[in-house]
Design brief:
With 364 residues, the chain is α/β, with parallel strands linked by helices. It has two domains: 142 residues, FAD/NAD(P)-binding domain; 156 residues, FAD/NAD(P)-binding domain. Helix content is 27%, strand content 24%. The chain has nine helices and 22 strands. α1 links the parallel β1 and β2. Belongs to the FAD-dependent oxidoreductase family. This is N-acyl homoserine lactone synthase. Pfam families: Pyr_redox_2 (PF07992).
């Protein structure tokens, strides 16, 4: 029987949806080190509802203490990577036979932690929650999954508010069959949300967090609001992967890879998740396809099989999407458009909270 000292070393940077699961699944097959700058995982989809139910924060901030049985979680900020090691800001080097970079993306507060501090994230969420409770009118700029879900959560929990959801697209979720966007728009309007389509915000005062003010639209209309949420998408965190040789970025800011999710001339370095431009969107559903492939591929590679002899990664042709509007209603696309019951059962009711608490060794 092999001892851990005989095992190949796998270093994973980033403890988000890719990093924690891959680390956990490889823990019995390799000497795993997971490098993460924060002391806890935050479950982003549930941070939306936490603005309406602040007590939820204690359920969705998950410490890494019980994640791995054999390997280790190292708290630190990685600043460079080579074929043989990952180096941290404090000068510590972690040698590796295989490296996975999954540094994720940043988003406007309070939907993801803006920095290393979980305490700062808690305060940001609490502050916005208090502002939201006092606001009589809310404008949400950006009608992707976060903006649409936010509009629905507020409308269900605080129906007395005047809510405007603004999108530069002429339909909600235009990349999906028209029925999905049409059904979501109809349900939002039934909840009292004003859905403004085909209009771009001209004068957002800030992009990093909500603020009180007004929004001027392309047609000159001014939407005044006690609280404006800028919700216009994620920004990939690619500074670490850019330290590798031969890296090429796409206009979206993500990084190109080969067929095996490798971004550079280093054959043992892989990337995944929001930073990887492999044909998937920046969604958790994309991770649900990438992670199993990555885990299986690395298990074979750990046994000495050449990566080039293994099956390449194949992205979603069109990834499923789940869009709850509060705990009970919503629509999803699971290769067909489905409604309230399936959306509620799959995501809306519990937001995957029990699943991730179990993964981190915690009870409900």
């Amino acid at each position: 029987m092999r001892t851990r000292i005989d095992m190949k070393k796998v270093v994973i940077v980033g403890g988000g949806y890719v990093g924690f699961e891959v680390a956990q699944e490889l823990d019995a097959y390799a000497d795993v080190t997971l490098i993460e700058q924060r002391e806890a995982f935050v479950q982003p989809p549930a941070t939306i509802r936490a603005l309406l139910d602040p007590a939820l924060l204690d359920q969705i901030i998950l410490p890494y203490d019980h994640l791995l049985k054999n390997g280790r979680v190292v708290r630190g900020r990685a600043v460079s990577v080579s074929q043989s090691e990952v180096r941290l800001q404090d000068g510590t080097a972690h040698p590796a036979d295989f490296i996975i970079l999954a540094t994720g993306s940043s988003y406007a507060a309070p939907f993801k932690p803006a920095a290393d501090s979980i305490a700062a994230f808690r305060k940001a969420s609490s502050d916005v929650s208090a502002q939201l409770a006092m606001a009589k009118s809310v404008a949400i700029v950006g009608a992707g999954a976060v903006g649409t879900e936010l509009a629905g959560e507020i409308a269900v929990a605080q129906p007395e508010k005047d809510i405007t959801l603004i999108s530069s697209d002429t339909a909600l979720f235009p990349m999906y069959p028209a029925k999905l966007g049409a059904e979501l728009k109809r349900k939002l309007e039934r909840l009292g949300v004003s859905v403004v389509l085909g209009q771009r915000a001209q004068d957002l005062q800030r992009m990093d967090m909500p603020y009180a003010g007004s929004v001027t639209l392309t047609d000159g209309q001014v939407v005044a609001a006690d609280l404006v949420f800028p919700v216009i998408g994620s920004k990939p965190n690619t500074s670490l992967v850019q330290t590798l040789p031969g890296v090429k970025s796409t206009p979206s800011g993500r990084v190109k890879t080969d067929k095996w999710m490798r971004p550079s001339t280093c054959p043992n370095v892989f990337i995944a998740g929001d930073i990887a431009d492999v044909g998937d969107g920046m969604t958790i559903v994309a991770i649900s396809r990438q992670n199993p492939w990555l885990i299986k591929t690395l298990k074979h590679a750990l046994k000495g099989k050449p990566v080039e002899d293994l099956k390449p990664y194949s992205p979603w042709k069109k990834a499923p999407i789940l869009v709850p509007l509060g705990p009970s209603i919503g629509n999803s696309w699971l290769f067909v458009t489905v409604g309230d019951w399936i959306t509620r059962k799959m995501k809306g009711k519990e937001l995957f909270i029990p699943k991730y608490r179990k993964a981190f060794g915690l009870t409900r």
